[in-house]
Design goal:
Radius of gyration: 13 Å
Structural class: mainly alpha
Number of helices: 5
Helix content: over 70%
Shape: globular
Order of helices and strands: HHHHH
């Protein structure tokens, strides 16, 4: 059973990711909120934190582009974030 706060933070991250997908929040706002989920990151193996921070860095850097470019795909990063959330949920649920 996952720690209640970590599970809540994962649910919040999923909610925020949906808002990002629907363009109801900015990449920077999403990234800032995601970086604040310390209990979630503490409940996961260290590699999960490294991967999430790397994805958030890519998301923030990519926010400088107004359209998809050959070197950056906003949708690709969002898809990778969703995969991260799905895998994190699997780890937390044991």
């Amino acid at each position: 059973m996952p720690a209640p706060l970590a599970a809540h933070q994962l649910d919040q991250l999923q909610h925020d990711l949906r808002a990002l997908q629907d363009m109801r929040t900015s990449p920077h706002a999403f990234s800032s909120a995601a970086r604040g989920h310390a209990d979630l990151l503490a409940a996961l193996p260290p590699r999960y934190g490294e991967v999430l921070l790397g994805l958030l860095d890519r998301l923030e850097a990519g926010a400088l582009f107004t359209e998809e470019s050959c070197s950056f795909s906003h949708q690709g990063v969002v898809d990778s974030l969703q995969l991260w959330v799905d895998k994190a949920r699997g780890v937390l649920m044991g």
